[in-house]
Amino acid sequence: MKRFKNILFAYDGKPGREQIFNRAVRLAQSNSASLTVIQVLKYYPFGAELLVEAQGFEEIPKSDRDETEEQLKRFRSAAKAKGVELTTRVLWGTPFLEIIREVLKRSHDLVMVGIESNDGMEGMLLGSTAMRLMRKCPCPVWAVKPTHGRQVDRILAAVDPAPFDDKMNDLDIKIMALATSLARSQGSTLHVVNCWSRNREKTFRARSRLKQAVVDDLLKETRKAHETRVKELLERFSLDYRSSRVHLLEGKPSQLIVDLAKKKQVELVVMGTVARTGITGFLIGNTAEKVLNHLECSVLAVKPDDSKHRWK
């Protein structure tokens, strides 16, 4: 099933972004989707932005605009050679805000953005465009490392199905739909991970009047409940079990997901980035933020379908 209809690639002019553009073209081809490339200019010293914004885009120095448009022409030629019609735009302003405005204005269903290739994703935090998009962009955001601009051989989908939480369960369905679609189109091995913890086990054993055997049974039931919920989730999708692996792990998700991605040499993690409490589309859950801070691979960040309404 084709998952994307209107893809947006936010080009920032940094080295290695051409590989990400090529991935965007291939994704547009496989989904019969439209593709847009934008570049947001922000070359002005503090204080000049308000003046330029008030006077409009045409007041941006012609040399800056022409140089950027010339760069984007190369993308149009490369896409046309592969049968993909490409739209390009040069914008001015704060990058993450202009990208979100484009998503809302033109109904993009995927944003692709490059991140630096370093040891881990620590550089994403503390105000980067990619992290701000993951926090606030209403559609999925694929933060791609330049080294992962080609084939994706191993994908990890992190899910957390829970009883009585329809919104988060719908998010898990969305995560799996995207992960399975990409795995099929790429011929990738798909790993699915769910983490569970022994919440309050020490308290139960030390302070409760429950017998130790009863506590042991409670823990077994907890694990069984997680297994059942994951099984029910995966039954919605026709997984190829020869190329799929399911991992039910005990411990802290923030560490287990990172360790598993590294151990399995995963190139893309598909995960939700909304807290179970707070304002949808504006808060990344504590676990998700810790995971994003330590992953060494690309990430496809997904939010619930109602995130867009928070911007209206």
Overall 3D shape:
elongated
Low-confidence stretches: 123-127, 277-283
Mean pLDDT: 80
Q: Based on helices, strands and strand pairing, what is the structural class?
A: alpha/beta
Tell me the number of strands.
10
Gap between N and C termini: 29 Å
Along the chain, the helix and strand elements come as EHEHHEHEHEEHEHHEHEHE
What oligomeric state is this?
Answer: single chain
How many individual helices? Answer: 10
Describe this structure in words.
The chain is an alpha/beta fold. The protein has ten helices and ten strands. The protein has helices at 17-31, 48-55, 62-81, 95-106, 129-136, 166-186, 201-207, 212-234, 253-263, 286-294, and strands at residues 6-10, 34-41, 86-92, 110-114, 141-144, 154-158, 189-196, 244-250, 268-272, 298-302. Strands 3-2-1-4-5-10-9-6-7-8 form a ten-stranded mixed β-sheet, sandwiched between helices. It starts with 5 loop residues before the first strand and ends in a 10-residue tail after the last strand.
